[in-house]
Amino acid sequence: MAQSFAERVEKSPEAYRSIGEASESLGLRPHVLRYWESRFPKIVSPLKRRDGRRMFRPCDLDGLKAIQILVHERELTLKSAAKVLETHGVEAVLRGGGRLFEAAESKHNGPFGSPALDLQASVRQAFSGASPPDNGDHARSDDTGLQLTLAGLSDLKARLDQARARRVA
Fold first, then answer.
1. CA distance readout (Å), 47 to 43, 56, 90, 135
2. What is the distance between the alpha carbons of residues 113 and 109, in angstroms, rounded to a whole number?
3. Sheet with strand 54-56: strands edge to edge
4. Backbone angles phi, psi at 57, to 5 degrees
5. For the structural domain made of 10-100, what CATH number should be given?
6. What is the pTM for the complete model shown?
7. Between 166 and 119, the higher pLDDT residue
8. 142 has a pLDDT exceeding 80
């Protein structure tokens, strides 16, 4: 079958793309692009022609690709993806950076610690063979440290289960 002129012409990287072309290049359905456009208006804001058709600029395609990476590859929620994009930007995500907890880990060193990050640190210490932080209890054995870590994990799981139950209700 012969190709049409439009199918034979290859667009430059700077050219605007229709929603069909954008969805095809990203491997997503057009309704997904429209939904993401409504959820991420600062990241994806295609130009709309007089007839209402969307024309995606290269920066819009980059934003869509960053959202796709966060949601489909890193399995973040849309809310978490928005937080990452707001904090780190599209370029950082496209370069492979822009992790959700990078900001939290840097804030962890401040005066207010995070219970989850404190627990992660204690688990790392317990499994690396490092001695636990000096809390004035010098008689603590490795088994006791692991038992305390397990108790902390169990407590954290119980709190997460309660939060999930409240969210569902």
1. 13, 7, 19, 60
2. 7
3. 17-18, 54-56, 47-48
4. -80, 165
5. 1.10.1660.10
6. 0.56
7. 166
8. no
